[in-house]
Amino acid sequence: MDALFKTWETNRNNYLRFLEPFSLAQLNTVPEGFNNNIIWNVGHIIVAQQSLVYRLSGLPMQVSDEMFNLYKPGTKPERAITQQEADELKQLLIALCEHTKKDIEKG
User: Fold this and answer.
1) Using alpha carbons only, what angle is made at residue 67 by residues 70 and 43, rounded to the nearest 5 degrees?
2) Of 32, 31, 35, 105, nearest to 71 (Cα)?
């Protein structure tokens, strides 16, 4: 299980490094021919994990219903997000990995 968590954490840290050079405007830009933007995909990664691990297990997710509804499958960006919201998503990429790891270790 440790290898799985290490891979997961490495992937999340790679996402953070990938995001570093982009401005908020770039993160919010929906490229022509696409339905979503980079930062929406970050939110989607977060809520998909929460849904698969918690929601489908009948457990409460560690994200709000509002966040889940913004980034769940079948959605697309409704508006540009703020810097505060982008920072929260970046923080959740790592924090929710740690939280989930602790939950699994507790059983």
Assistant:
1) 75
2) 35
Listed by start position, the domains of the chain span 2-106
Q: 53-107 pLDDT, tens per residue?
A: 999 999 999 999 999 999 999 999 999 999 999 999 999 999 999 999 999 889 8
d(CA 72, CA 40): 10
Helices (H), the chain: 2-19, 24-28, 38-53, 65-71, 83-106
- Cα 86 from Cα 54, distance rounded (Å): 23
Nearest to 77 by CA among 41, 52, 49, 47: 41
Inter-residue contact 63 to 85 (CB < 8 Å): no
Structure tokens at 9: 């954490």
The set of residues, in sequence order, having a beta carbon less than 8 Å from that of 31 and lying 6+ positions away, is 37
